[in-house]
Amino acid sequence: MRGQSAIASGHHCCQGCEEGPAVLHTAAQQRLPQLSRVMLLIAWAHTQNLVVFQPSRLTATGPDVSALLLGHTSDTVLSLRSVSPSNTTGLIGSPSCGNGVTQWVLTTVQAGKNAVWVQLRLRKNLRLCGKNETDADCCPKPLCVLETLQVSACVGGTPRASLLIQAEIHARLVPANAGAGNKTIIPNQVYQPLGSCPCDLTFRACDIRCCCDKDCSVEEVKLFVSHCLPGPFGGQVPAAPGYQCSEQSSANSPDWFPFLCVNSPPENSPYLGLFYQGDTITSKPGPSFQSPVLSAPLPVRAYIQGSPILLLTDQYFTIPQRGLEQCVNNAPVPFLENFNVNCVTILRSCPAGLPLQTQPTNLSITLKDGQGGDVVVDVIDEVAIDMSLFISNTVATLDEGLVCENVTLALDYTFYWKGNGLTNVTLTRTVGTITFNTSVALTTRYSAVFLNGDLMSEPNSGNPGYQVGRPVIAGTLDTLGNKSGSVQRTSLNVWKPVSDGLCSTAESKPVLFGENSTSGCLLPVSRQDLTRCDLLRDAVTSLQAALITATYVAKSGNPDPLIMTDWANISFVTLNSSTTMDDTTSSCSGVPSHQHIHVLSLITGMVEGRAQRDIHSLLVSYTLSHWALDCGGGDSSPCMDPLETKLFPITSSVTFTDIPISTGPPKTRFQVNFTEYDCNRNDVCWPELAFPMTKYYTGEPYSQSLAKGLILIFFFITASILGTPWRQIRQAWA
User: Fold this and answer.
1) Which tens digits make up the pLDDT trace of 639-693?
2) d(Cα 136, Cα 374) in Å, to the nearest integer?
């Protein structure tokens, strides 16, 4: 409607162009949204060298009002005056370029090349005047401002456009002494039976319907005098009760009233303590959208497992590590937690920054030892000779490739610790020279190992029982080392295929407690290999045996390497070498292609309501397969060429089985065959006939159940004495 008013009032802008804007607006209103109409209006006004207010009529209910002046506004001068309709015609006169005296301030802000924001602000205070107040800067009536304003856009003293503003602004219900203090003083209610005005909740402001609020003027109270809050909250203290001696009246009080009335001071009111004790309430800061300032990490005097290692500047000591399946260059190093990660980087040019380009002086830094001192990292340099461990996916050409020298290929840290601190840190930096043409996939290694003397720290898998998802701890008996008779930790592994899935490139992963898994890899076998079945079986056996080098498995998640009762022997199902193998020139039998690990676990107790699981036994068995070349089908090259290979699978699996727990001794033959007196199988339980008289019965107080039981016994004895058998005995004695 505003856009319609602006175009419809185009006669204020151009005396000879009344029809053009109106016709243009009518067509645009039917087809274009409001924004499109405004842009079309700007373009039309600019081409016609005109100016137009958008909108051309406004109704102001607040102290601020704004509109847009569109078109050729470079030479436009604005004027403001107060106008009133004619008494005879009721119309407002033509626009004028003269300024009048008003209580408004006119400002302009350039909003674009062909647009100007026109803003008007009221200079009058909208506060409602108090009673007998002489200040002129306030509103004597609730309807504070009622006038019509006209803003004219003039070019060379001639009005080109006009804006009419109808201002109807009411006064604000804010008293004269309103302030913006940040503290509120609440009167102490301890020594008053009731607050003078409990509904006065807003400091220095009138609360609606609170007729006792002293911040409300007489005019404001008249607005809601018929809807005042009732009761004590509204400040209406009830009259004294009729039993008070002070309420005695000679007209209607009985003669006995002075003897039975109550003398109670006014301070002893039932409303005492109804409101909180007065106190000073400090305003709280509001929410902020600014990002919080991150403080430096607090210095740690003593390291504990998992806490980050710090530099002398109280910053984190970082090493590239893997997180969320990608490498992070600045990852803090946790105390007593080993890791070994590989990071792959695609190089198309020689690296120039960290971590692929390092200097010994930059790596030889000082760390806090966690005991009030410091340790310096000792750097040892090594040169890599075999680059195949670090480089892959190279693109070769006949031209000479790019040579990158002293590239950092590996950073291996060794931390020596004692108690809650570090004693020494060594770093082995491996560098090498990389030659490539187009691009190369560089695999770098980063590791950290914590040693207590010469013993590597190993994390446990539970305390005391195993936790699901933690590695199964295995070990071998140390008979030659310094700790002879102890068990050296190792792990049980299964296949972890990577990239092409071949066994030559496959890795291994540890067996995780409580998680069944099956994995494998592919072994290339030629017809020539199938003619030497003994060598083939030995090769497959060696591959499977490399997964499990341990002879013991830890029963619990935190075994002691010096206590042999914490460990159980691993049982291996040995292959029968005397079995006759049905081998031919192109096939081999008895190949141990599948290795199976069967773990038996059981619940040994409860700790803080959690079941503790231990390993009872572990069995390793093998499944034998018959490998032969399939010469049928479309591809017969392996059968023709003795060196042509075919892929055969080698697999490994692990299965966990829970041993059920026996909850009690076995049942006797009587309990199995006769169930009449079994309370768990019958509704009537004769062995528990006297249960209500025992202390285990909680249906009612023990004294009541005992009394009722004795009464039943009394009735039983009485019935027995007065019954037929006793009567016959008495007759016989008589």
Assistant:
1) 677 777 788 899 999 999 988 876 566 666 666 666 666 676 666 676 677 777 7
2) 75
pLDDT one-digit tens code per residue, 439-486: 888 888 899 988 876 445 567 788 888 988 888 999 888 766 555 577
Identify whether the C-beta of residue 219 lies closer than 8 Å to the C-beta of residue 128: yes
Q: What angle do CA 635, 640, 646 make, to 5 degrees?
A: 55
What pLDDT digit, counting tens, does each position of 560-588 carry?
A: 888 888 889 999 887 666 566 677 777 88
Whether the CB-CB separation of 83 and 148 falls below 8 Å is answered with yes
pLDDT for residue 239 is more than 70: no
* Residue from 243, 86, 58 nearest 163 by CA: 58
Per DSSP (E only), the strands in 555-705 are: 567-572, 587-607, 610-628, 645-658
Nearest to 355 by CA among 391, 311, 392, 407: 407
Q: State the DSSP H helix or E strand holding residue 538, giving kind and residue range, or none if neither.
A: helix 533-545
* Prediction pTM value: 0.39
In whole angstroms, give the CA distance from residue 317 to residue 329: 11
258 φ/ψ angles, rounded to the nearest 5 degrees: -65, -25
Cα dihedral value 486, 491, 492, 496, nearest 10: -160
Q: What is the dihedral of CA 545, 548, 551, 552, to 10 degrees?
A: -170
Return d(Cα 572, Cα 293) in angstroms, integer: 60
- Is 450:457 a contact under the CB 8 Å cutoff? yes
